[in-house]
Task: structure prediction
Amino acid sequence: LQKVMDNVKNKPHLLTKGHDFLAYQVFDAIVDDFFPIIEKLDDEIDEVEEKLFKTTPSQKTIQRLFQLKRQVVDVRRIIWPMRDVLNVLARRDYDYINPKTSIYFRDVYDHLLRLADMTETLRELVTNAMEGYLSITSNNLNYIMKRLTALTLILMLPTLVASAYGMNVILPLATEEFAFWEIITIMLIVTLPTLYYFKKNNWL
Result:
């Protein structure tokens, strides 16, 4: 509004064009101010996307992504209702607007439609970035779970053998001279094939 007031001070004759022309100037200034906001949001979304998919994102980057989503939603909530208002003002049959001034409102309306499309694109970009991040996180978690499962199974087999021979009961090989090495051999026999299987299937 300050921009409009300064413009009127510098060009007092604008007041003679009527209240509808002054309203046009207000809407035009409001709509024009949204373009740098949209461009800044677009640049920040690109920057966050690059950090998400090229490096391990920090908690600050994730928080910024959610903040950007909220900001895009807020801008969208402001812009979309304005379309209906400007659409009415741009109609030549609207009694309160001079037909000559309605042409200016049509121009602002066209700009607003561009803004609406841009905000919709930004919303899709943010949504895609969030879905991509969640997908990567899910894949990483699945990979970690696979490795933990494989390691658990590999360690479980020799642990079972060691636990069995740790009990205070007489078991096969327990009383033999080379029982220790024989038990170690058994552990390797049951462990190595399992290790090979998981390596072959990229679980480790």
